[in-house]
Design goal:
Elements (H helix, E strand, L loop, with lengths): L1 H13 L11 E4 L7 E4 H43 L9 E3 L18 E2 L15 E3 L3 E3 L2 E3 L4 E14 L16 E8 L6 E9 L9 E14 L4 E6 L5
Antiparallel strand pairs: 1-2, 3-5, 4-12, 6-7, 7-12, 8-11, 9-10, 9-12
Length: about 240
Amino acid sequence: VVVSLIAVLALVWTMPEIPKTVKTGEICLPSEIGPLKCGSTADLLHGYLEREIATKYDEVKRQDQKKQENHLKKVSARLMNIYDKSFWEMKPAAKLTGKEQPDLRKTDSNADMVPIREWRNGRELYDTKGFIRYGIRYRNGRLVVPVDGTYFIYSNIDFFESCNPSSGLPDVKDINKPIKHGIFKFNILEGEEEELVSNVQPHTISTNRYYNSYNSYVSSLAELKAGDELSVKVSNISY
């Protein structure tokens, strides 16, 4: 209302002389194609104010953007003086190690891959080489990304399966079902889980006839958004 009133007052003060042939219910205002245009008071006034307010808004927006840029330069310079280059190297990072897993959920009993739901986190990381830094959060067995960016993700797991001592064959229900290991992401705004990287290995005959051991390492660069949740999944959590 204030902006409109100011615009109307400015209009009255700066308006060129109005032709004497203007009819009742009409008004003459500066137009975008000429000095004056006469017509319906409501239509012309609405169009004129819309053009004037849009121009002023763009000007205010440019000034505000310039202020923000200047403020960022001042703040970044001050932070650089305080923290030197280390401030810009504070990138989100985390490294967790595994722990004993809870019982399998009923919903995962027939799933092709199941998530690792428990990791050492918080104070449990003090006695490990793990850490969580600069905005990364741990939630329900997942790592939550704080900002958009390109991340290096990786996971390393050792698998062990029992074998039949008489033959050395893996003691599993279906030997044709491979051993899988992968990293997945989920974002609540998208509502769908996506596989980022995975590894698949076949079962082998044990050389010692009692058990098999497998190592799986997966890694990749991934474009992640703020709020993406990363999880690790395997085909058989009992391994």
